Structure formats: structure tokens, C-alpha cells
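Data availability (excerpt). The following record was deposited with the supplementary files.
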Amino acid sequence: MSAGPAESAPQYPVLYRDTRDLTPFRRALIRTSVRGLTGGVRRLAADAMAGRAPGTLPVEGGVPRLGKVSGRMPGKAAKAVHSATFNSTDPDRLIGLARAYPGWSGLCYLMAGLLAYSHGGYLRASELLQRGLSIRNDDDANRYAAEYLPGVLTRVEVAERVEVPVLFSEEAVFLALSHSLRETGQAEAALAALAGLPPSLPMAVARCSLEAALGRHADVAADTDGLLNGDDLSAALLLVRARSLRRLGEYRAAGATLQEVLRRRKTDFTLRSDALTDRALLLLDAGRKSLHPRDWQHRKPAELETVKAIRKDAEMHELWDREYGRAADGDDG
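Predicted structure:
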């Protein structure tokens, strides 16, 4: 690998440079009606084979057996929360425990929110997740979360038909919250929920999709400049970029972006099909019959107004970091 990029090489935005060796993300899924059906059948079969009721939270590696928490035997609260988290399909059970054990209420509301989200209850999920993020937990709840919840898997829709399984983490909670807010018509709040998350492709897809929905196409174009098609997530993001460029009247750049989606042969068939459809729409907009660069209509780039960056809602992210991200700091065991 070279020591540094050449001067002519595209500069990748900080938004996508996730430098962590391990991330909470698993392989992205591009949903279709058929894949959604077969995926649901597979999940039901897996739950049945594991002796779990359909509708419980998915867990990577199986449900952990409750034992000592940081060297201590689990108390009554830990046992009740463990059972409700892994064996229940009803968020109300966790909500009841939040009221019974105030020191565990923040964690209980978060898990109830993720459970409601997994069932498609977006309005309730957004309310529960926001409530859970606003409440501090006691040390026992934080130790339990750090030891027993890392395997909880949330399948988050970061954009239309693009689903990413995310292990229990800040990203899982805030991406699920953002999607829930988007589904309930709160696009600005959904965008604000993503502010402060670590850089990653799933976050970028979610953010740029929201920016495009809000008409902030110049922001999308700037944020995705230099992006290449390395996997299905980047291909999905390039499709968002191409559509924003088309809205801005930058037809040559939009055509080159769609060509990048089609360049990689292993790109998901659905994404390639979308790129071909978008290329046809681009031809109609440009009033041309050929995609050859010499045939593109030459236009001067329109002068675009500077869009103010959305206000970052740092308070909830700082609270998460105190409660979960650094829960292990200062622990005895």
C-alpha cells in the first residue's frame, strides 16, 4: 500500500472513513418482496430450532446464559430484565420492569424500543428509545448491558430496501431511532438523531437518503464526492448521489456515477436494475439518446446556496457514551 494518495486521487469524505478494526455492523441486505419473505421464514425457522418464540429479539451466537455480572451473582432485577429481554415478545413487560426497578429503567426502555422497532411499531419505538436515552442507569444495569447485550442484533433499514444488521451499540439505537422518526414523518429529527455517530457507510446511507428527501441535494453531492463502488452499501449510496446530481442538473456527473454502480459485476441485481432505470430517466431529462460523454448536454453548474449544517444533538450521544460506551471504565471486575 502506498504511503499516501496521489494528488489526483479522489478525496474521500470523513463521513465514510470508519477506521475501527471491529464495527457493530454485519453484511447489508438489499430487500425485495421475495427476499423479505424468505428472510422472514428463515428467522422463524431459526427461532423455532433455538426454542424461542417468534418475535423475540434476534441474538448473534444464541441467548447468553445469565451468570455472574462482573464477578457478582445476578440480583432480582438482572434476572427479570434478562428474561424479558431475551424471552419476551411484548415491550410492555420491559416497560413494567422500568417502573419496578428505576435504576434499570433507561436500559429497559431502550430494549423495549428495539423490540417495538423489530415489530415495525415505529411511533412507539421512537418514543421508547428517546425516553431510554434520556434516563441514566445505575452501575449494575450498565455492567449487565456491557456483559450480556453485545450479541443483540437489530436489523435497521438505513434507506429504502437497504437493511443492515447492527449489534447492540450506539449505532444500533440511533439508527433505529432515526428510521423510526423518518417513518413517522419527522425527517429533520431523524437527521438530527444521526449527528455525532461514528463515521460509517450505514450511517452515510441513512444520512444522505434523509438529505435527499429534504431536498438538500447539494449536501449529498458534496458528501459523496469521490465515492467508489466497493460493496452493495456504497452502490446504494451512489444511487442516492446520482439522483441528487440529476436533480441539480449535473447530468454528466450523474451518468458517471451510475456507470460506477454498474462497473462492479458483483453489485446486487436490484441495485444494478435501479441504476439502469435511473440511467433511462437521466436520458429523458438530458434530452439525449446516448450515454457517451461526448453526447452530454454541456451546462454550467448552477450556483447553489450554502446549506447550514443541522444542529447536532450532542446531549443524548454524550449520555450514551457515559452510560454504555465507557461503562467498563472504573469497574472493579
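Summary of structural features: The first strand starts at residue 29 and ends at 30.
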